[in-house]
Amino acid sequence: MSKLSLVLLAAGGSTRFKLDVKKQWLRVDEDPLWYFVAKKFKSSGLFNKIVITSSSADIAYMKNFGDFIYVEGGSSRQESLKNALDHISSEHVLVSDIARSCVDVEFLRSIISQKNRADVIVPALGLQDTVVYDNKTIDRSLVKVVQTPQLSKTEVLKKALLTDVEYTDESSAIVAKGGSRHFVEGIEDAHKITTISDLKKISCLRSPSSNILTGFGYDVHAFDSKGEMFLGGMAIKSSYGFKAHSDGDVALHALIDALLGAAGMGDIGELFPPSDDRYKDIDSKELLKIVVAKLHNYGFSVSGVDLSIACEKPKLSKYKAGMREVIGSILRLPPQRANIKATTSEKLGFVGRGEGVAVYAVANLKYFDWTKI
């Protein structure tokens, strides 16, 4: 394997994408887009180190997918790249955007083969249409559409980025510092996903898997003589509440664990540690909303949930319809797909002795189908 490093930029917020799902988490079969791209680059055998930039909120989940070096990105593409370059010591580094998902190995080889021609090797496309700038027609042969990946001399690139000026690609920064640039022929398949309409121009992406992903959650809380009782997102008329760090809504806690389990995202304690005072006495509906937003960001949608609430007291029959409405609204489900069951434990165990409530939850997720946009 050559001593060549790769930086894949995946820290963007997808603000121009206008969907709940971040574009780097669109699913290709079962793989998120960033992982689909990273696997393709890795399988080329061209790189001895691969660094992927990401938002700090995504890194822990990304590590479940592949053994890469993950680096927290910055507020801009350039800042993210600078953070990644702190981990690069090879003579050359190839930088690419996750959003250019259809780059093939032969294209990579054509760029790398030119590495000694200049400080930065840049793929670019010419224009076929008439070009007008400032109301004047200009020679279109002088205009190029610059693409990534770009291959740079690492030290030259690091020095070029020591500036407060923001550049949209590596070559612009290098040339601004007096470095040399060599163009190679780009490819149409390297089209970048920026807006939803760009998805129709991408040829290599398979549609998301139709698999249903199932998660199970379980939680218990003992009764407390203090405070109100909240269960299934509803205020329950009662003279006692639950012992808990948050509002103690044991039903929503079990549901959150089921949702996280279906997505492979750990458990509620990892996401909302009881040692964190930010969640002291928090409304558990707010916790559920945070989880649902994450699921949507990561390319999931909820297809249905089922909760079994085991308690001797309080009686819940008059609250179940309201629980369906509350939970369904947060999950973007009709009430009939947010099922609530209440049962007793036939006087057995701590539930049977009236000491607390246990809840079992099952959640089904599916991948957001971007092909139907």
How would you concisely characterize the structure shown here?
The chain is of the alpha/beta class. Helices cover 26% and strands 27% of the residues. The mean pLDDT is 93.
Overall description:
This protein is an alpha/beta fold. It contains eleven helices and 19 strands. Strands 1, 4, 5, 6, 7, 10, 11 and 12 form an eight-stranded mixed sheet that branches. Strands 16-13-19-17-18 form a five-stranded mixed sheet. It has a two-stranded antiparallel ribbon with strand order 2-3. The longest helix has 14 residues, at 250-263.
**CATH top level class name of the largest domain:** Alpha Beta
* Level-2 CATH architecture of the largest domain: Alpha-Beta Complex
Helix coverage percent of residues?
A: 25-40%
* Secondary structure tally: strands: 19
| CATH topology-level fold name of the largest domain | Spore Coat Polysaccharide Biosynthesis Protein SpsA, Chain A
How much strand content do the residues show?
Answer: 25-35%
Spell the H/E element sequence: EEEHEHEHEHEEEEEHHEEEEEHHHEHEHE
Structural class: alpha/beta
Tally the structural domains.
2
Largest sheet: 8 strands, mixed
Report the end-to-end length measured between terminal Cα atoms.
Answer: 41 Å
Low-confidence stretches: none
Write down the Rg.
26 Å
Oligomer: single chain
**What is the CATH superfamily of the largest domain?**
Spore Coat Polysaccharide Biosynthesis Protein SpsA, Chain A
Number of helices: 11
Envelope shape: elongated
* Average pLDDT number: 93
